[in-house]
Specification:
alpha/beta; 6-stranded mixed beta sheet; 14 helices; about 45% helix; disordered N terminus
Length: about 375
């Protein structure tokens, strides 16, 4: 409400109606009654009556059986400026997230300031002060170095800048991203089922690849994978496990697994990777040694390159857990605007996970084939 208007002249029902209209951030957004009530602080009965009135006046419309959609984009008293500290520009998964965030900010009329952390502690700390100097309203922080999370949190808190952190928790920040243990568990169970069908449950060796800088939260993907595998194949607890702490890139994984294969003569090797680039690097190492039939590999992220690999006949990239990064932007922008407009938001928002494998990849990602055909034209 405009502070120049005396509260004595304010009409409460109109004020509540304005709050409900402001809960819709874009014309495409669909909210259910419970979401409107939670975002405005109104009880459901009052919210329902006002929603019905706004629909009768043509300001809202029904969307599906229980949803509502705004028929106009409300004007804002100011344009928000949000900082986005991207982890890196070379990881395909992060690139998909960045594209989604940029599109969502554009649709919401939000100015986005993007700085690249370059997977570096030093650069990430420097970027914090750049955001502070620029006086952004909020920051979306994407960096995996657990040991600097506390310092970042302190700097942002002193500047009074709220933070949404993606995939790696930070003290005081709203968390958005993976349920890392669950994602790992999904991968491990799929790997166990594949082994039961194709190798009659026989395993000679398990290889796990972690990210040394990411801390326990992100690395719980591999812990979850081992637990999921053991849930399906209890005897796998006695199988030797080799753990490697490496940067999660194709090149580091390729070099590491090549060295491993020079020592190992195992015939049935399962590989649980922390992301798709490291999974693909491991797969290439097995191919270089002419031992692709000796492995079964699961990744994390279901990035385009991994999906392309899973379409190859006979591939031993047997699965990857999807996080659907293309959906991140609208969800994070909605949380960001709610935070800036002092509406309640959950402390943790976890994304949906699904196993993608050679048998369902075309069903889960049907548009990939169309994109590939278009690229050939």
């Amino acid at each position: 409400m405009n502070s120049s208007i005396s509260p004595d002249y304010a009409v409460q029902s109109v004020s509540r109606a304005c709050d409900i209209l402001a809960a819709f951030h874009t014309p495409e957004e669909v909210l259910q009654l419970r979401h409107v009530a939670a975002n405005t602080g109104l009880n459901k009965v009052t919210a329902f009556r006002i929603l019905s009135t706004l629909m009768a006046k043509g300001l809202l419309e029904r969307a599906g059986k229980s949803g509502y959609r705004s028929r106009f984009q409300p004007l804002r008293t100011r344009r928000y400026r949000i900082g986005y500290a991207v982890q890196s520009t070379v990881v395909p998964f992060i690139s998909a997230v960045t594209e989604s965030i940029m599109a969502a900010a554009r649709d919401a009329g939000i100015e986005l300031m993007i700085l690249n952390n370059r997977a570096s502690r030093k650069v990430a700390l420097r970027n914090v002060w750049q955001f502070i100097r620029e006086k952004v309203d909020l920051v979306i922080e994407c960096q995996l170095h657990a040991e600097i999370a506390g310092r970042l949190a302190t700097d942002y808190a002193r500047a009074g800048i709220p933070v949404i952190t993606m995939d790696a928790p930070q003290p005081g920040a709203i968390y958005f991203g993976a349920d890392n243990y669950k994602a790992g568990h999904i991968a491990g169970m799929h790997l166990g089922r594949w082994t039961a069908i194709n190798w009659q449950g026989q395993i000679d060796e398990i290889v796990c690849m972690n990210e040394p800088a990411a801390g326990a939260i992100l690395n719980s993907r591999v812990l979850g994978a081992l637990d999921g595998l053991r849930h399906v194949l209890p005897h796998s607890t006695i199988v030797p496990v080799s753990r490697y702490e490496i940067r999660p890139t194709f090149e580091y994984s390729l070099t590491t697994i090549r060295k491993h294969l020079r020592r190992s003569k195992a015939h049935r090797i399962l590989v649980a990777a922390i992301n798709d680039p490291s999974a693909l690097g491991a797969l290439q190492a097995f191919r270089d040694f002419g031992r692709e039939e000796n492995c079964a590999i699961v990744g994390q992220g279901a990035a385009y390159e991994a999906r392309h690999e899973m379409r190859r006949s006979g591939t031993r990239m047997v699965g990857s857990v999807a996080y659907f990064p293309e959906s991140y932007g609208p969800k994070m922008m909605r949380i960001a605007v709610d935070m800036l407009e002092k509406r309640a938001v959950p402390r943790v928002t976890l994304v949906h996970h699904q196993i993608v494998h050679p048998q369902n990849v075309n069903k889960v990602y049907p548009n990939d084939l169309l994109m590939e055909l278009q690229s050939l034209e």
